[in-house]
């Protein structure tokens, strides 16, 4: 980056690579429009330069964000809408009013050691430090827990690692499971046979899998039982060896179900349990197996626990804002 000329109303950045500048601006300058709306500034494009017009504070924030975005592209990393949203939140203050740690911005730019998950359809990389530590734990530990709010990539990253291990020959099969807990609807009222009744509960797992494997290949693997997607109740009595096993929505497993699932772990297998403690759909008075497992197992060194917050949300920006609002309400009611 060649220059940074600053006065009271306008600052200019020059970008030596026009191709990267095109990616930085986005289709129809969509990325620039996102920054303008977020910071309340005006961004003018003149050749290979971008000029930022606005008050000093927002203008400097915009310059920092543009530099980070460009450095990310220079490091050979993609720049997607979710990445831009994450950079906007990393560049601003956290809930306490203090700036966030620099390692988050370094991870965004590619300044720290990269963690990548290769699948058949795409290359997946964690976008936050918490996600990076989680992915490393999935590769290193036989049993891992991912606990945090919706949209933080707990299940998505776990399925990606499972596909990576399957195609690299480290495991022979993938088993994805969820408790088929009724949240306002009764299974018996749903049409079709048992598979038809439970498939809606499994749909998020199918969707994640579709991101990493071609459709025909995934269908063939499921037909051959190389990949299984089944309700938690179907795990009883099995020993899961040489498999990558994911239990999603584990907050809706009872204590007995959680014990049953954890004791399925066999030789050569990896097991991942993901859940959100704020979204328990169990009947009143029934203890969540996720709570109990966390309490009893957190001191075992060979088991990892990864925790996520609203700052790790990689869905629509409103999801993070919604989660933060609920967290504030919970804290106020304590």
Write up this protein.
It is a single chain. The protein has about 325 residues and is α/β, with parallel strands linked by helices. The protein is built from twelve helices and twelve strands. The strands form three sheets. A six-stranded parallel sheet has the order 9-8-10-11-7-12, with helices on both faces. It has a four-stranded antiparallel sheet with strand order 1-2-4-3, with helices on one face. Strand 10, helix 10 and strand 11 form a beta-alpha-beta unit. Helix 1 crosses helix 3. The longest helix has 19 residues. The chain is globular. The N terminus is likely disordered.
Task: Report low-confidence residues grouped into runs of 5 or more.
Answer: 1-6, 92-111, 183-187
Number of strands: 12
Mean pLDDT: 82
Number of helices: 12
Per DSSP, what share of the residues sits in E-state strands of 2 or more residues? 15-25%
Largest sheet strand order: 9-8-10-11-7-12
The helix/strand order is EEHHEEHHHEEHEHEHHEEHEHEH
Keywords:
four-stranded antiparallel β-sheet; disordered N terminus; globular; alpha/beta; six-stranded parallel β-sheet; about 325 residues
Describe the SSE topology.
Elements: E1 4-6, E2 10-14, H1 18-25, H2 30-39, E3 42-46, E4 49-53, H3 56-74, H4 81-91, H5 102-109, E5 117-118, E6 123-124, H6 129-140, E7 143-147, H7 154-167, E8 173-178, H8 194-212, H9 215-223, E9 227-231, E10 243-247, H10 255-262, E11 270-275, H11 289-297, E12 303-307, H12 317-333
Parallel strand pairs: 7-11, 7-12, 8-9, 8-10, 10-11
Antiparallel strand pairs: 1-2, 2-4, 3-4, 5-6
């Amino acid at each position: 980056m060649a220059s940074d000329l600053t006065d009271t109303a306008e600052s200019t950045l020059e970008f030596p690579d026009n191709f990267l500048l095109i990616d930085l601006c986005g289709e129809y300058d969509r990325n620039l429009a996102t920054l303008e709306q977020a910071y309340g500034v005006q961004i003018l494009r003149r050749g290979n330069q971008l000029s930022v017009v606005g008050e000093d504070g927002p203008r400097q924030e915009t310059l920092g964000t543009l530099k980070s975005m460009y450095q990310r592209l220079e490091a050979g990393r993609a720049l997607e809408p979710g990445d831009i949203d994450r950079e906007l939140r990393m560049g601003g203050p956290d809930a306490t009013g203090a700036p966030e740690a620099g390692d988050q911005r370094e991870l965004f730019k590619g300044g720290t050691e990269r963690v990548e998950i290769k699948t058949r359809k795409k290359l997946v990389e964690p976008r936050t430090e918490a996600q990076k530590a989680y992915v490393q734990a999935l590769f290193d530990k036989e049993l891992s827990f991912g606990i945090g709010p919706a949209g933080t990539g707990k299940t998505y990253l776990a399925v990606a690692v499972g596909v990576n291990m399957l195609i690299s020959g480290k495991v022979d099969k993938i088993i994805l499971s969820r408790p088929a807990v009724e949240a306002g609807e009764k299974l018996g009222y749903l049409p079709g046979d048992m598979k038809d009744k439970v498939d809606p509960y499994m749909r998020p797992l199918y969707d994640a899998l579709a991101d990493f494997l071609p459709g025909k290949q995934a269908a063939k693997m499921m037909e051959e039982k190389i990949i299984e997607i089944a309700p938690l109740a179907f795990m009883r009595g099995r020993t899961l060896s040489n498999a990558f096993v994911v239990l999603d929505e584990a907050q809706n497993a009872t204590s007995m179900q959680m014990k049953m699932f954890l004791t399925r772990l066999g030789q050569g297998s990896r097991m991942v349990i993901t859940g959100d403690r704020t979204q328990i759909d169990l009947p009143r008075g029934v203890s969540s197996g996720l709570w109990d497992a966390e309490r009893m197992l957190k001191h075992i060194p060979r088991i990892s626990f990864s925790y996520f917050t609203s700052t790790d949300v990689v869905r629509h920006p409103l999801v993070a804002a919604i989660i933060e609002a609920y967290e504030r309400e919970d804290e106020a009611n304590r």
